[in-house]
Amino acid sequence: MATRDANLAAPNIRFRQFNSAFLLDHVAGPFDLVWVDGGHLYPEVAWDLAAAHHLCRDGGHVLCDDVIPAADGQRTAYVSPDSYRVLDYFAARTGATLHLFLKRCAFKHAGVPRKRKYIAMLRRELR
């Protein structure tokens, strides 16, 4: 916790932690970068990503952790393909560019396609 607090102490970082259903009541953008790492199951991930999209400035980026793009991807109490489906929805309907970066390269993490996790980067296009 001390390391996190030290990292967040930089003057150009604003860290806020709220229940994502009420995030837009407490935080106003726009932000250059919004990192989403909350619940990875629907509907929470849809709320988080919709709020992130609205808080991100045009040309800014939304990043999301633990994205599983495989349609038959691993589903647990904590992760699922739901975040990818929501990100793909935004990309298809907004013209945003979606990139996926493999989260871990070790075979035990990335060797089974349905268990591969990615970090997604969605660039909010200029309007």
Please, could you describe this protein's structure?
This protein is 31% helix and 24% strand. The chain has a 4-stranded mixed β-sheet. By secondary structure, it is α+β, with helices and mostly antiparallel strands. Helix 3 (44-55) links the parallel strand 1 (31-36) and strand 2. The model has no long low-confidence stretch (mean pLDDT 86).
Structure summarized in a few sentences:
This protein has 127 residues and is α+β, with helices and mostly antiparallel strands. It has helices at 2-7, 23-26, 44-55, 82-94, 107-110, and strands spanning 31-36, 56-67, 97-102, 118-123. Strand 1 (31-36), helix 3 and strand 2 (56-67) form a beta-alpha-beta unit.
Terminus-to-terminus distance: 39 Å
pLDDT under 50 segments (min length 5)? none
Order of H and E elements = HHEHEHEHE
Protein structure class = alpha+beta
Sheet having the most strands: 4 strands, mixed
Number of helices in the DSSP assignment: 5
The tally of beta strands, per DSSP, is: 4
Describe how the helices and strands are arranged:
Layout: H1 2-7, H2 23-26, E1 31-36, H3 44-55, E2 56-67, H4 82-94, E3 97-102, H5 107-110, E4 118-123
Parallel strand pairs: 1-2
Antiparallel strand pairs: 2-4, 3-4
